[in-house]
Write a structure and sequence with these properties.
By secondary structure, the protein is mainly alpha-helical. Helices cover about 65% and strands about 0% of the residues.
Length: about 290
C-alpha cells in the first residue's frame, strides 16, 4: 500500500469512527502497569497487586500460562507464580493484549460468536508463540501479543459499526465474496486497518502495527516480514486443521511466500509441520472448553 493510499484509508477510518462518539482510552490497568515498568524498584509483588485488581484478567493470564501450546513445564495456580515463571516483559505484553480484548468484549448474537472469537484469538496467539519458539525466533512474546490482537478490528467493527458489520454478513451470505473482500467492497478498508488505526492511537510500537496490518498478506509488509508471517501461519493453521477457526476467515488465502520467509523450503515440508501440531491444537481447544 502506498503512503498516500495508507493515509487516505486512515482518514476514512477516523471519519467513520468519529460518528460513533469517543473511542475508549487505553485501559487503566495498562497505564498503571506501564508506570510500574518505568520504575526500576518495581517488584513482582507490586506488579501482582495491580494485576489482581481485575480478576477477569487474572483468570485469562492463568489460562495463558497453563495452556498446552504455551508450553510451560509446570501448572501455574497463582498470578505471583505466573509473573515469576513467565517474566516481567512477557507478562506486560500478555496483559496489554488481554486488556484490549476485554475493552471490546461483545455480546454474542446471530452474526457474532464472542466465545469463538476469543478461542480463535487465543489459539492463534499461543500457536504463533509456540511456532516462534520452535523456529528459534527470539522475540516470541511479541508474537503472542500480535496473535491475540490480530483480529481486534473485527471486534471493533462489530462493537462500533454494527450496521456495517451486519451488512457485510448479509452480502457474504448472498454472494460468493469472502468476508475480507466484502469489507473492502463495502467499507473501503478492512479490519486490519481498523486495528492499525486504534493501536497507533494508543502508541503501540511500529512492529506491532505492521504485523497486525499485514497478517493476511505478510510478504507485503514493507518492514519486518517474519512477525506477521508467524501470525499468518498460525491463523491459517486454525482453518487448515479445523480447530479454533473463526468464520470470518472462511476461504483464507495462504501467502505462500511465508514458506521462504520462515525457511520451510517447500509446501510439502510445511504441510508436515502443520500436521505435527494437530495434537497440540486438539489439546489446547479441549483446555479452552474446560475454561468456560
Amino acid at each position: 500500500m502506498s503512503e498516500n493510499n495508507n493515509h487516505e484509508t486512515k482518514e476514512r477510518i477516523r471519519k467513520k469512527l468519529s460518528y460513533i462518539g469517543s473511542l475508549p482510552s487505553i485501559p487503566k490497568i495498562i497505564a498503571e502497569v506501564s508506570s510500574l515498568f518505568n520504575n526500576d524498584r518495581t517488584s513482582a509483588v507490586d506488579l501482582c497487586r495491580v494485576i489482581s485488581k481485575d480478576q477477569a484478567i487474572v483468570a485469562k493470564i492463568l489460562a495463558v500460562a497453563n495452556s498446552p501450546l504455551y508450553g510451560l513445564p509446570r501448572r501455574v495456580s497463582t498470578i505471583e507464580f505466573a509473573v515469576i515463571i513467565i517474566g516481567f516483559e512477557q507478562i506486560k505484553n500478555i496483559l496489554v493484549a488481554l486488556s484490549l480484548i476485554e475493552v471490546f468484549k461483545n455480546r454474542s448474537n446471530v452474526n457474532w460468536d464472542h466465545q469463538a472469537y476469543w478461542m480463535h484469538s487465543f489459539l492463534t496467539a499461543t500457536a504463533a508463540k509456540r511456532i516462534a519458539d520452535d523456529l528459534h525466533y527470539q522475540k516470541s512474546g511479541e508474537v503472542f501479543t500480535v496473535g491475540l490482537l490480530h483480529d481486534l478490528g473485527l471486534a471493533v467493527l462489530h462493537y462500533y459499526m454494527n450496521s456495517d458489520f451486519n451488512k457485510i454478513c448479509r452480502v457474504v451470505k448472498q454472494s460468493q465474496l469472502s468476508f475480507f473482500s466484502a469489507e473492502k467492497e463495502l467499507l473501503g478498508f478492512t479490519h486490519q486497518e481498523i486495528a492499525e488505526t486504534l493501536l497507533e492511537k494508543w502508541n503501540f510500537p511500529q512492529y506491532v502495527l505492521d504485523a497486525v496490518l499485514y497478517h493476511h498478506n505478510p510478504s507485503q509488509s514493507p518492514n519486518g516480514k517474519v512477525l506477521p508471517s508467524l501470525v499468518h501461519l498460525a491463523d491459517y493453521m486454525t482453518q487448515k486443521l479445523g480447530l479454533g477457526a473463526f468464520n470470518w476467515d472462511d476461504g483464507y488465502d495462504f501467502d505462500e511466500n511465508v514458506i521462504d520467509i520462515l525457511g520451510f523450503g517447500s509446501m510439502e515440508y510445511l504441510n508436515d509441520f502443520i500436521a505435527s501440531y494437530q495434537p497440540l491444537f486438539e489439546n489446547h481447544v479441549e483446555f479452552l472448553i474446560e475454561q468456560k
